[in-house]
Every structure is written in C-alpha cells, then in structure tokens.
C-alpha cells in the first residue's frame, strides 16, 4: 500500500564547510531526484572559501525549482548541533544527511522509499561508490560485473554488526524522521555523528538494504572523516570512546558483547599506532572493566605507557590512497 502523498516528503539537509568545489554538484543531485516532494536545507557551517558564493549562485538559479531553506553560520559550529538546528525546522517524514562533497544518483530517494514502504524498517542503506583523489573508484561493498554486492549484507537487526565494524556506509542512509527524532537526533556532545547514530538507531529499529550504487562519496584527505586516526592529536577518537561507553551500557547478549570487544580492540590498536596514547589508555581502561586481560591488551597498554611513537609510518600507510 502506498503512503499518502503528504507523507512522501523527504528532507535533505546538506551541510557545507569549505567544500566550494563540490557543493553545486551535491545540490544538483538533489534537484535531479526522480522522487518528489523534497525540501532541501542548505547549511553553510562557517566556510572561509568560496562555498557561500557557490551556494548563492545555485540558489539564484534553482530556488523556484525546489523548496529550499538556507542557514549561514559566521563561524564553524559543532556539526551535530548545526544539523540538529536545521532538522528542528524540517517537515519531512524521511531524512537524508548529505555532505556537500558527496552526490546522489537520481533514483536514490525513489528506491529508498520503495524499500522502506515494503518493509517494517525505519532505516534504509545501500551500496556506494567511493571516489579517491588519485582517480580510483571502488564500491563500499565488493560487486560483481552487474554491480551487485558479492558479499552477504546483514539487514534487519544490524546492532551487533554496526558495533563490530564499519559495515554500513552512512552517506547512503535514508531514515524515517520520527525514528531519528525518537532517539534524540544527533548527540551534540560528539565531534562526529555516524557511528553513534548507527548504533542508536540499530538498537531500536530494523534496517533494510537496497543493492544499488546510488550514492557517490568522495574520499578527501582533509575531510572530517579522514581525521579519525590523525597522528598524535585526533579530535574524533574521544567521541569514539564515548560511543563505546554508551554501547557498554546497551549490550546484553553474548554476541553483542563480543562485537564491542572486537570494536574496542580495533580502536585501541589504531589509537596506539597513531600515537594517540592518552585516549588509547582510556579505551584500555574501559576494556579492562568489561573483559579479561589478554596479550593484545598487555601489548597496547605497554606500548601506550612508554609512548613508542611509530605514527610517521602509520600516517604514510594511511595516506596511501591519496598519492
């Protein structure tokens, strides 16, 4: 059964910070969606490049073609807070968080809503194409010649899966707005949003997968997502610790507890090798309260205590895709 027309409204919130080279393509990809109705919110989060000029030029040319609201911040603010402020003014029944350096295939929203209507899920996700600065393009999930995923994709209850690893490409998400609202929207105490919102949505709601390459994500060296394991001074790892602490209070079954153990070891490893020793020790402290000490724990604990800095080699390895 189809939803009533007024319940079809999708809110797309496009947040831009110094992405002037890309923002017009992101906005055009919303305009070109086969699905209607859409409301487009554009947030310039204190850009210092030509982003605002590009946004204004785009608005001048397209403001009559799609309902649009724009928000300009003179100084950068917390991403989660900037997004939530825009979301509070939205009317859509479905929600998309679109980074200004990503862009959508024209059928992304149409396919997403079809899958959501045919299931009891509140969150849709798909495959994505990742574009690297060196010209390399690869899919998030490996695909066959027909462009279909050739690995099993977990859907439905994905809670343990999103705890354990980066199993869902967050730019592909299309969420029911009320579901997003019911979990409290983005946590404004965090520096980044995707790990946390995936966990909180998955703890409460079912996810449905569409096997399509309908989102294009740019992998950019200086983007926020690439700062997760920045050597010696990650601004994002403290937020990762907060999310892991949240998960520790949420997990109940043995498999989910094991998923958190593996996630913690993964984050501890990268925090240690990237010389973020203080946060590594805090993660190790959390691990110790939850699980028996093992050889990996002792290795990373000793490494972090003596502050053996191998981050130069790690950084070179991490940046290999940008060469």
TrEMBL record:
Q: Name one GO molecular function term.
A: transferase activity
* Swiss-Prot/TrEMBL keywords: Transferase
Residues of the signal peptide: none
Show the Pfam families listed in the entry.
Glycos_transf_2
Question: Per its UniProt entry, which superkingdom is the organism in?
Answer: Bacteria
Q: Name all Glycosyltransferase 2-like domain ranges.
A: 11-136
User: PANTHER family from the entry?
Assistant: GLYCOSYLTRANSFERASE (PTHR43685), GLYCOSYLTRANSFERASE TAGX-RELATED (PTHR43685:SF11)
- This protein is called what? Glycosyl transferase
